[in-house]
Amino acid sequence: STIAQKLCNGADKNSRSFVELKPLSVSEADDLLCYCLSRYGRTLSNQQRSELTNVFQKCSQPLFVSLCAEKCKCIHSNDSIDTADFSTSLGDSISAMLTDLEKKHGYELVSRSMSYLVGSVTGLSDSEMEDLLSLDDHVMSVIYSNHKPSLWRIPHNKWLRLKDEIDRYFVQREVDGVTVYRWKDEQFNQIIRERYLNDESKTKEIYSLIADYYLGIWHGKPKPLSTAEDNGKSPAFDRHVPSQPLTFDNDGQVRFNRRKYDQVPRHLYNAERLDELNRLVLFNYEWIYNKIKALSLQHIIADFALNPSNEASLVEEALRVAEQVIEKDIDNMASEISGHLLPYYQTHPNIRALVHQCDTAGLKQCALIPNFPYLQIPGSSLQFALKCGAPMEYFSLIGDERFLLTKERESSFVHIFDVVLGEKKSSVFASNGALYVTPNGRYFIIIDHVTEKSVKIHNAETGAYVGQLIVLNHIDLKPKEKYKLGSICLTNDRICAIVSTDVSYLCIASIESCQFLQIIGLDGKCDVCTISHDGKYVFCNSNEFLFTYNLYTLELVATFSIGFRPSCIVVSKDCMRAYLTNNFETKLMILHLNQGKVEMAYKSVLNKYMADDTIMDLRISPKDDMVLVRGLNNILVYNRANERVIASFTRPVDIPKEFKLPRSHYTDLVFTNAEFTHSGKFVIATIFRNIYLWEVTTNELVTTIQAPVGIIKEMIYSPKRSHLITHIEHCHEFQVWNLDEAVKPMNMLDKLTGAIADIQLTQDGETAYVTCKCSDEIGVIEMKTGIMVDLLTHDSPVVDFAITPSGGYALVSLEPRKKDISTKLWNLKVRQVIKEFGNASGYCISPHQNDFILFVSQQEVAFKAPFFITMFQISDEEVSEFTHPLALRFVLEKPFLTSNDKYLVVLTAHEYHESRAEYETPTICTFSMDEEMKVSYFTPDSFRDSILIETIVDMQPCLDNPYTIAVMYKSKEMVDYNDNSPFGGLGGGARYGFMILDICSGSVVTICDPFLVPSFQLKRKLLFDISYSFCLDDESNIFDIREGCYVGQLPKQNSPPRAIALNGTVVVYYDRSVLSAYRLSSGEPIASCDVHSNICSLRLSRDQRTLVVGCEDGSIASYVLIDPKAEDPNSVLEHLGSRQLMEPQPTSGRRSSIPWDKIEDGGSAPQSRPVSAVAHDKTDKILLKQIEPVPAIRPSSDTLMYLNANSKTCALM
């Protein structure tokens, strides 16, 4: 066979791994015949053997001899042999054997059983064959043509007698836990297919019946007998076949039905029952989950190859993306499928059905379902988002453009990523500094990161140090003369470096020998340097002259005056053209070259296309026929043959001129990268965080891709793989995009720039407001889709913020850096700051129901400066401000509002003892919001009759009662008011106590003293259920507040409990990237979900089931918790926004910027920043070029006699 021939050709000629089996000789065939007959106790006469010699001369294969022996075993010694009765080929011999079997056992039994055996591919067991024959109406009609049995199944001996005659040609083996039989030789399968499976309709019937059998369709119900004799009246009979479940449960031991997993997909496909293949296999959660557990994920992926479609491809890609998570914990599979495929829920019916199954049937494995999509979406242009340990600065593709090298300037490690598989391969230790790589990827060239005086060469594969080049050892540097390393150009064996002092030097060195070949002193300063595509010439300038040197003869080839100092130069691949530009004029100089010499030069004026622009870069097209000219705001394509501009791409109108990024200042947004695609038909460019793809011939924008928040600083295009690699400035990850998928519009989720610090939700739960640690940004997330619909940035990091219940207004407190603007009040409907005030940060308090925001802050930053309470009341789009006359000396923790906004509760104190570093007389101060903020006080003396309070350690509002708060305190003396207390009323020493205080009447509703164990140390706030009947400590101990004792403990986790959900029935934890949930009543886990990034914050929505998760990488995830044992999943899903079907919206194939990216309307000039509350303030940015120079007369001086008349004035900025 071809496979065997390839194996032999690839093997060592002297290898003994292969033994060639040559055809048997006639004598060897005769000996084999005698041996085969001897097994039956038979023999042939010499005359009979000589007759068979003529047969073996035509075919002497061992299988043919064995088939002849089967025919000869019935011949008597006195019988003559007619060679015409024997076939002359192996195929004819097998056909003859089947003909004999048909005569003996009947055509229907032989043909159908052989068809099932071959159709199964992997073979069948005896019981499976009997079941299939019992389901076959053709076989059963023949067997029971004269009577109707009570048990409608094929008699056991029918198949066993047939198998006994051909058993010697079977191989027996274990397949999926079942002993099956199949043909030893492929010739049998081939002949049977040609003989019995040559009719398409009969073939489909065979495959369809096998599929029905393994699906268990006819288990426990009668199957109609479909034969012609019934005249339309089809009696039905129970064939007593097994049920074929996905799993077998034997006293708690689960065994998977692997035979079903192997057979069903193949036979549904062969029977062309593609709808059932989709419904029962490819888009069936139970099938996918159990088959992965029984076999592997690769077996499932192989099923998708049977019926490739758009939807099937998306599910397959989702499984591939989730492979690592699924292999780690398969119970994550439901959430992984839903999270990755949610964007297709509206438009793809099969995917919608699969996601619904994950949301319902998948709850048995994980009770958390994603509320909005995950970051990586199948079918989108984003292939991978690969993380680095630090922001990388240097990127280069090697190894057939499969491997990406990344390096940080301050690090010695070069990191290698496989951009095809999306994984990090290794790290190579080299040197600190800037990274350059030879075109063949063999050497790293690293420039010393401090002085730039040393050029180090390392082996790229091992990182081994090869040598270094130090330019200063070869040039004379004058005292106080500055040294600077300029452009670096590489071939596989040469380095060209520009070094500048008062003048510049062109340094040419050999990479392998680490030796300078020539150091050429230039008369002036060099700005550009490049090497021709063939590696033969190097071009560089000296002031306004262009020099060409031969890299191998080191001779000066040409000198040409270009009339300006260039800022950019490129040479065509055929070395027949060179293109130069400068930063002062929008003209393209074209040089005609011949062997490195300039034969003609002229300029092409580009002012028509690039008015008031600056040319930043030039690129040559892959076919060498065009030049890409990138300016700050325009991109041009210049045709070499026509010598004119054939395409012009202007700055997109939805990109602001400037933008304030988080943790940054206002930055001008310009084109940062531009490149041709591999065919040269399209142009890729980046500006801000957007990637644009334009078609050259039509000048039309094809599509837009949005990267995460930031400015795309680096872009690398891989022509061979159509991959695009982008890196956001100061970001710890880079993105790998597939441009072939870029035409599919897809909303990508955004990330914030740091670890999530706080999450707040609107009253309806449809919008989340998110802040980062030590950052000035607030992200506004739409909870239905997970898309960031707005990004608010400020002048300094956000300390605290609050929102109104509808999310229409936000109050933001910042770190004070500038006078009178440390607090900002936003009108989010018009995205405008309507008030700026304050010089100190404070507490922003969000209401639950009413339209107001409270702010508690000092007026100046000082330890004992009083705190004032200000209320901003919103009514009819107008904001009124009221500051309470009472000033509080201290605020010990963030104040809060009771559940219906009736009271503001503040923990304060009378005095602070610096010597003891403690507050004296802790006081609960309440403000009635309905009674013009009437004030009430509760001090330890207020409770003296019942409890002795030393200090208050925590306060929380009671969610089920708007007039009560829960107070945890330390008591001076342990007093036991609970008969069931485990401490026996032992007194002495300060212990924790707990009470529920009615702040309306001032009465204590509940007291639990002592509270928890005496040795308990409060490290973080305790978790209470909604009714405050029990609480959980850091060790997951359950304390019954009403009984005053511990009643149990949940399974110990690596982290403390984070939330109590579903009205006190489920406890939520997170540890690293895993979000988990446990049922409180039994302690059993009901969910464990990987959110793909380490979790750092969690917010439980008011519905007690929606969880918003903030991660360390700035991403936001949301999950809905459903306990399948306690509630109906469908009743929850029908109210879940991301699972609601919407009217289809027309799409253009392009994605425009989201609102906070866009230029705002209004005013005489477009604005990219929110309108300030203080117009024309000194904080507004003013460009220096807009300031008129102010002439100032230089004072006369007798000591400055050398000055001329033009030196008497200067311009003061």
Automatic annotation (TrEMBL):
Stored Pfam families: WHD_NWD1 (PF25469)
Keywords of the record: Repeat, WD repeat
Family matches, as InterPro entries: NACHT-WD_repeat, NWD1/2-like_WH, Quinoprotein_ADH-like_sf, WD40/YVTN_repeat-like_dom_sf, WD40_repeat_dom_sf
UniProt name for this protein: NWD1/2-like winged helix-turn-helix domain-containing protein
Signal peptide: none
NWD1/2-like winged helix-turn-helix domain span: 85-202
Gene3D superfamilies: 1.25.40.370, YVTN repeat-like/Quinoprotein amine dehydrogenase
Region Disordered: start-end pairs: 1136-1176
PANTHER family from the UniProt entry: BETA TRANSDUCIN-RELATED PROTEIN (PTHR19871), DUF4062 DOMAIN-CONTAINING PROTEIN (PTHR19871:SF14)
